């Protein structure tokens, strides 16, 4: 099946900043993909490249099979896009903005928009400038969903919204994927995104260090904590691929892929007590972010996630 989103070895620089470095990503149809990473990791840049709003320095990007470098207008008319701070015409009412947008889309748009605004309990006659941040976000999502796009791209759409609105947003994502359409969702609300994402793409400093089905990432990742008897005892070597290693005094924590638990018991026998648990996505991301701040992170992260910048892809489902 052709990917709906395809970044192939994309590098994007802004003067002396490399916002994306050799990033490759394929998102198949019917998948909710969470794009995660710290502030400045390159998430918005990746989205803008895909939408044809930023040229790349090297590599190629395409959406729904359309080349982003030449087909930006067509891409933007075919995907639903919700920016972090959506720009909406303030003087229009909720209803009027739907009529206005309907002029750019085939018949049926206004009715679909109306259905979404009612679902989100928006008052049709209220002016956009009178809406709260959450209500504006709901208008933006209604506009993006009303033309039933094959791909919905959301750049931190839920930041600053209350828990109920965030939940409504994320439930809409699940509905979209259930209809065989895809969602690319950039977010810092990791624990919430975890409820709806099928796959995750993690950017660290412009490099994609993990692209994988979420269930597979969680199934194969363990957090190990070992308590050493004193500071002079060397920490054991982990029997698995180390994503991150964080020492806290006598305690050392590791995030490990494909941990050999029997072997762990052996290597820890003369070292100290240990515990093993299955981490959530947020724990994995935090470990990667901490690791990212230490020298040599890129090499270790790529080795441990099996991801090299040129080949990262996932085929969920
Ligand atoms: N127009 C621009 N001019 C110069 N540098 C830019 C520009 N846009 C982004 N950058 C830089 O590129 C890097 C990636 O920025 P980007 O906005 O893509 O990150 P992000 O992951 O979306 O961050 P956040 O989570 O804070 O929104 C940052 O170092 C940023 O300063």
TrEMBL record:
GO terms for molecular function: ATP binding; ATP hydrolysis activity. InterPro entries: AAA+_ATPase (IPR003593), ABC_transporter-like_ATP-bd (IPR003439), ABC_transporter-like_CS (IPR017871), ABC_Transporter_VariousFunc (IPR051782), P-loop_NTPase (IPR027417). The keyword Repeat does not apply. PROSITE patterns: ABC_TRANSPORTER_1, ABC_TRANSPORTER_2. Residues 5-230 form the ABC transporter domain. Keywords: ATP-binding, Nucleotide-binding, Transport. The keyword Nucleotide-binding applies. CDD domains: ABC_DR_subfamily_A. This is Putative ABC transporter ATP-binding protein YbhF. It comes from Maioricimonas rarisocia. The gene is ybhF_4.
């Amino acid at each position: 099946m052709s990917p709906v989103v395809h970044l192939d070895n994309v590098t994007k620089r802004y003067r002396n900043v490399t916002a994306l470095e050799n990033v490759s990503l394929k998102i198949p149809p019917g998948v909710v993909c969470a794009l995660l990473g710290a502030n400045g990791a390159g998430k918005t840049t990746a989205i803008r490249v895909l939408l044809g709003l930023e040229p790349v320095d090297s590599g190629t990007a395409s959406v729904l099979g359309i080349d982003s470098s030449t087909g930006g207008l067509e891409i933007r008319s075919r995907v639903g896009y919700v920016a972090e701070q959506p720009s909406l015409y303030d003087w229009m009412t909720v209803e009027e903005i739907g009529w206005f947008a309907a002029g750019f889309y085939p018949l049926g748009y206004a009715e679909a928009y109306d259905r979404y605004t009612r679902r989100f309990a928006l008052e049709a006659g209220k002016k956009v400038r009178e809406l709260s941040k959450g209500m504006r976000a709901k208008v933006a999502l209604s506009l993006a969903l009303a033309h039933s796009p094959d791909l919905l791209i959301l750049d931190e759409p839920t930041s600053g919204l209350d828990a109920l609105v965030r939940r409504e947003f994320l439930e809409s994502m699940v509905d979209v994927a259930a209809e065989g359409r895809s969602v690319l969702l950039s977010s810092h609300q990791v624990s919430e995104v975890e409820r709806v994402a099928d796959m995750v793409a993690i950017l660290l400093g412009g490099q994609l260090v993990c692209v994988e089905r979420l269930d597979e990432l969680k199934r194969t990742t363990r957090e190990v904590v070992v308590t050493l008897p004193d500071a002079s005892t060397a920490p054991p070597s982990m029997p698995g691929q180390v994503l991150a290693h964080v020492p806290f005094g006598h305690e050392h924590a590791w995030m490990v892929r494909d941990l050999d638990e029997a072997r762990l018991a052996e290597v820890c026998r003369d070292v100290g007590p240990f515990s093993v648990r299955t981490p959530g996505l947020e724990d994995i991301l935090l470990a990667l972010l901490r690791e990212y701040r230490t020298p040599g992170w890129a090499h270790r992260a790529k080795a441990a996630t099996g991801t090299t910048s040129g080949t990262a892809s996932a085929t969920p489902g």
